[in-house]
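Students often ask why we bother encoding 3D structure as a string. The short answer is that it lets us treat folding as translation between two languages. Here is a chain of 402 residues written in the first language.
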Amino acid sequence: MNASTQNIPDHVPTSRIVDFDIYDVPLHQGDYHLGLKQLHNPGIPDIFWTPRHGGHWIATRGDDIYHIFKDYQNFSSSNLQPMYRNDISVRMPPIMYDPPEHTGYRSLITPVLTPKAVENLGEKARQNSIELIEGFYQKGECEFITAFAQQLPIGIFMNIVELPASDREMLLAWAEQQVRPTDMEHRGHALEGLFGYARQKVVERRGKGGKDLITVLSEAKLNGQPLSDFDLESMLVMLLIGGLDTVASMMGFIAKFLADNPAHRKQLIDDPELCGKAADEFMRRFPIVNQGRTVTRDMVYKGVEMKKGDMIMMPTTLHGLDDRKFERPLEVDFNRPTPIHSTFGNGPHRCPGSYLARVELKVFMEEWLKRIPDFQVTPGKSVQVRAGVNATVTHLPLSWKP
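And here it is in the second language, the structure alphabet:
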């Protein structure tokens, strides 16, 4: 990897420069996560500077990723992605706010994602899983992403915000342009679409007394005052992007692994109670998010000189695959002690939907393997993967004998 001389500030030594595009990870043997794992190779600094996307740092080790996520005083969430660093017009609460401002906004969302609330959503997820699987089981094949991964978690999310199923494809396309944009113009149009949609729903729901999350937020108060229209619309856009992409994307990588590894399938079939621990292990092994922070002051972190305004990216995959934190990190071990990782971030910004994600992944494995214990990637057909802010499997053809 040869570094360009562009976008190299004076405080960055040559020894810490590696030319790497976090949004276009070179697949290693067709594998996205192994492509990122190459950043643990000897000779690559634990923290390095890449000239890509205006130049930014990348942290590659679990201890640093974990620490930086938690240290909001030195590493701010005010800008999360170097590719969007010039787009300062949209700061979406709570994800782009730091405590104490972040805390109040987040408190408006968390009640619908408590363990008790998620328990009810888990039962809904189970019913939906069964209906989806039985709908295509007799065909002996499916394209998993569109037939299941984009149906189950997204269906649950659409239920939380009470949005019509007919809007799903439109919203998915807009969310896709935010996390894996084809170009900045398309991303801009999609963001306008999301804000316009959020604005319309706020107008429709405000004052109607409903119990869905959009209505609850539209009538919520922060410090005794109603949310501004911009803050409310921004929160809804953030929820739409997160709810429509994250779990669906992770589920594709997990289904691909299970299709390729019959011994692991057999473990879960023989002992369905293991599916909860399997969800924990899969979340460690197959993170998808590349998240960033902005340095708040001139500082030296572990011998690395950083300047105020520098951006640093934390590929969450690299915490889960760090051999300094986990024995045999590439190996999926359902009996591994519950791991501490950064798949959903850490500290005040830890994703409030992480518990729901675990439940959805657990239910998927329980109900799928109960009905389709033996399946494979369809011979002769290819699996397609895309990197970006979030990595995803875009095409996963599976087949089985009904």
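Translate back mentally: Residues 269 and 373 are 7 Å apart (CA to CA). Keep this in mind for the problem set.
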